[in-house]
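Hi Q.,

Before the meeting this afternoon, I wanted you to have the adenosine-5'-triphosphate prediction in hand. No need to reply - just skim if you have a minute. The sequence and ligand are here:
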Amino acid sequence: MDPYLSAPVRALAVTADPDVLDDLLRLAATAGAELQVAPDAAGARRAWETAPLVVVGADAALGCAAAGLRRRPGVVLVGDDLDDASVWETAVHVGAEHVVFLPDAEPWLTDRFADAAEGAAEEGVVVAVVGGRGGAGATSLACALAVTSAGSGRPTLLVDGDPLGGGIDLCFGTEREGGLRWPDLGSTRGRLSAAALAEALPQVQGLSVLSWDRGDPPAVPPEAVRAVLQAGRRSAELVVVDLPRSVDDAVRAVLDAAGTVLLVVPAEVRAAAAASRVAAAVGLLARDLRVVVRGPGPAALPAAEIARALGLPLAGELRSEPGLDRALERGEAPGSRGKGPLAQLSARLLDELLPPALRQAA
Ligand SMILES: Nc1ncnc2c1ncn2[C@@H]1O[C@H](COP(=O)(O)OP(=O)(O)OP(=O)(O)O)[C@@H](O)[C@H]1O
Ligand SMILES: [Mg+2]
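Predicted structure with the ligand bound:
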């Protein structure tokens, strides 16, 4: 077998300049990434196409361009002289996507090494859930989706996106357990390591949960939300976010990342009216907004009619879950029993919303 094919996938550095190499090795180590090193184009040829990231030193760039190496994404050229305009021409010849200069680009390059180490290309799916009115059942459905997904062996992250919801960890009875919660992440900016996040979060029923706590919720800036979701998507195949009904910058950051948003609407006239306001605000930003109707309501309004009135596709109907209130009081998460309306709807929604490769979890 070709030793390069069986070797772990590592970023490739192409340079014979000891100073540049020192810098690259240091940045890769900071990012927890392994680096394979080639002094020139000839040495780089075998790994050129398979490495997730290729960083070419200015000393080797012309050689790489002349060697006719195939164009590929993820090539970065490290320039050595900011005033030398020819570096841009060389970058075009070698097919570099970025030209960077050290030390200014150190944080950026460290992030790219970390992306390469964690496999940035395979990102999980984000599904957000929001209620059409207060008490609609959004948090219950978010929990059930996450529990069902984790129950089938899929790496799953449940994110509590509602600072005033009292903490989603209460639904699991894990409010006294240690681990990371939103107030610990308020100052997060830039890149968050997926491995570090997964390690710091409490695990319950096979899934990671990022919850609010019971203190006064500090404002979490949208940068922190973005960083959490990006890291979450690198380590989890499914990220479920329980959203509040009012849209602020943090919610906008979630909607921006979400593939699908589920709007839970009780089958009642007033709930439908309230939901139309939420749908108007969320729909401006959501890529794919669908309705889950929770019934039956007092007037037996058909789910299809509610969805039609809201002008949104119907994702599913949710019948009343027997014993949900008691289960919640006991800290038994919605969907945990693996049967009942919440578990059944969750399984079907996951089947529809996840791409084929992620549907059959291990
Ligand atoms: N599928 C269901 N079957 C029966 N009751 C439900 C269901 N979903 C929610 N409920 C009831 O509604 C209550 C509120 O549910 P939940 O907290 O999930 O709603 P929410 O939309 O997140 O509310 P909030 O506006 O407080 O965020 C639950 O305590 C339960 O009594
Ligand atoms: Mg809620």
